[in-house]
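Interim report, section 4.2 (structural modelling).
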Amino acid sequence: MKAAAKRSRRDTIRAQLADLKMPGALEALDEVLSGVDGGGLTPTEAIETLLGAQITLRNNRRLQAAMRSSRLPAVKTLADFDFSFQPSIKREQIDSLHELGFVERKENVIFLGPLGVGKTHLAISLAIASAESGRRVYYGTLADLITSLEEAQAAGTLKQRLKVLTHPSLLVVDEIGYLPVAPTGAMLFFQLMSRRYERASTVLTSNKPFEEWGDVFGDDVMAAALIDRLLHHCHIVNIRGNSYRMRQHSELWQALQTPDLEEAKTT
Ligand SMILES: Nc1ncnc2c1ncn2[C@@H]1O[C@H](COP(=O)(O)OP(=O)(O)OP(=O)(O)O)[C@@H](O)[C@H]1O
Ligand SMILES: [Mg+2]
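Predicted structure of the assembly:
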């Protein structure tokens, strides 16, 4: 093909990509075409690379928008997770959850385990994968979510707040069990979970086994009804192991795990 004809083709493709609002592909175009001209890329690979560049840009933009609107506290991804540190976790189960079929089916996920084992990390990475797929996500600790519901109730806007929190395809409820919940807060949270039941997925984390949720929510009957709804369509990930935060301090970790720590300190 003559150089001038080649240039005009490129200009047409540039205009088409701009028209289609594909800046990622537009930016990659020259490099991809040089790859084809130099023989380094087959036409199929070139198309794949071009579309891949656009998808990467789109996913990054979705993630940035989600980070602004979802209140996710950090970026934690599956790629950053070291499975060798936590052998109790079945990698296939976590990989398969990241394919997001559970969000499609409006099922829940619960990460249970002691502190520092990666519950929040994996809950966030599921939220990020969902955000990248274009779904609306929202993050809150149980305490934050209850506070926001209580404030809405006091302001007479509870109905709207419940609607806002029912809307996301994936809601993360982090840190169930660290702070006790007052009875009114527990009822509000129960209302939220009842609304989301079979309508949208919730990913929850807790350091307490289900048997202790009655104490957390201050009401055994309400906790049982809540667990009944949550577990109806649910993937449970039970993590056992040491805190990743303490991995460089394994002796201190062992000491913290022993009940006679006070005694050990004074001797
Ligand atoms: N297996 C792992 N690979 C890489 N990073 C990890 C792993 N497990 C935990 N982390 C990191 O260690 C820190 C603590 O993990 P995380 O916050 O997920 O723990 P957690 O189970 O939610 O603990 P807590 O109950 O105290 O809230 C985070 O910075 C997280 O990214
Ligand atoms: Mg956590």
